[in-house]
Amino acid sequence: MKTFRTPVLCALLLVLTYQTRAQANRDNVPVNYLKISIKQLLSKQKHSGKDSITFLSEATMTGKLIRINKNKEFADVSMFNLIYYVIEGKGKLKTGNNECDLDKGSVVFVPRNIKSSFEDVTVPLNIIELISLEDKSKGDSASTSFSLDHLSAAKLPGKNVFKVFINNQSMLSGLYLLPEQLKGDSTIYTHRFDEINLITSGSGKFQAGNKNLKIKPGDIVYVRRGAGHKFNSLKQDMEILIFFEKRSVQ
């Protein structure tokens, strides 16, 4: 019996070890898609008591929800180019010699190595921060601010329009305007870039591989480079803030 148990136990141990390693490998394989909502992030922020919640951490980009409280100032110098999208609140952002007002729908590009500070916060700010982890670009000399209302003016009847507002060495970003009558994209797209899609208005579905995800305002969908995707089954005109990270082509 003793000589029988030993090889059986050894075999079981080998199987368990293989299964454990296989599970670990599966857990470490990067996903091609990730979907989360701003509502979920705000809930997590509230229950954690933290002012910064990371929802995406990839080799090429990072996504965070950050909160700047009323009458609180916050200053920083980022090593990387980044974009702020204001969900709610009121305040000001100073970057170098520039200053812009912040409220719901504000979009601000902040270049690397430029000091930025949030000031005069009269209503607590909740902001989506998208960071390009590209450290080889020469860098832009000044920040640039936009509003969704201004970008939305680029829409054309009966046409899908991608209104680019940032295009530099490390990132490409714009507002994608989709009219309901076209029901979405006419084809499945694949890109050389990792990308984040933030739904700012409208609802419909997002085809991610073999899954068709329901999407609505406040949803965020990450797509890894080379992964097929398309917007479809629109129920209203849709607007999507899209962020491409160019480092992912290297």
TrEMBL record:
It comes from the Bacteria. One of its GO terms (molecular function) is isomerase activity. This is Mannose-6-phosphate isomerase-like protein (Cupin superfamily). It comes from Mucilaginibacter gotjawali.
